Amino acid sequence: MPEDDLESLPGVGPATADKLVEAGFESYQAIAVASPGEMSNTADVGESTAADIINAARDSADIGGFETGAAVLERREEIGKLSWLIPEVDDLLGGGIETQSITEVYGEFGAGKSQVTHQMAVNVQLPHEHGGLEGSCIFIDSEDTFRPERIDDMVRGLDDEIIADLLERREIEGSPGDDDTMNALLNSFLDHIHVAKAFNSNHQILLAEKAKEIARDNEDAEFPVRLLCVDSLTAHFRAEYVGRGQLADRQQKLNKHLHDLMRIGDLYNTAVLVTNQVASNPDSYFGDPTQPIGGNILGHTSTFRIYLRKSKGDKRIVRLVDAPNLADGEGIMRVQDGGLKPE
User: What's this model's pTM, rounded to 2 decimal places?
Assistant: First the structure.
């Protein structure tokens, strides 16, 4: 049972409280950031009643009002930075991937988008002094890209100093060069990655709701959820909504899905990392014709947009396309057997 007493809100009795919890509105804060229409549809309450419940929750949670810039600065100090462990890229991103934000990585096939999601699923579990967030990862897989074997490669590819520290922290006996020791370390990493395969766009949206439950249940755990990966965000939407006639429906559905992901990031201090497919713009006579799909909905909702493109051999160009507080720029990384590495 959640700590907040939902029955103290106006119009909420035991039955309504149960409906709210089942629909994911398990706290004052979760209710306060909902819309009356959303609550009416998912929790089976009247829209006017939903509005009264939401307003009362906002008062109780002290949310939705104005605050000073100093207060915003103080609150932003709680935001974590998930390191890529590539100094050039981390400098580009102001320290790494932010929690409470959506970071979109797009690029053509083979550019390394899934490599980034796998590497971040490893890095998020590292101690803070090694660039991690000491948290677990939720991985929504819509393109059958998740491979435990690749996690194995990346765990073994960590610096010896980091591996030695991890073995001590996780109370795993043995030396870094021993296969049994490294297998035990790998299993400890895989235990903190929650993976689900999305079969269509509706299932993907449902999994986002399930992800919120996992984040809530692990909020006070040793490894709280600090990273939510969706690889890829747009594949199912692109396949199921074909043609201009269905574009509006697709964008409306995608918009709701993005706001569900954003809510998880805000409520549980989680970094949201999504990959996106691209299309070629035939009208582009100059510059790179590659454009991310998802339109303005995705462009406006993503806090950070990163464009990956291939270079020579295992090199990849990491270009920061859009960020609210950072200048555009580029960095270089390598995709190797041991994971993402500096140039």
Answer: 0.82
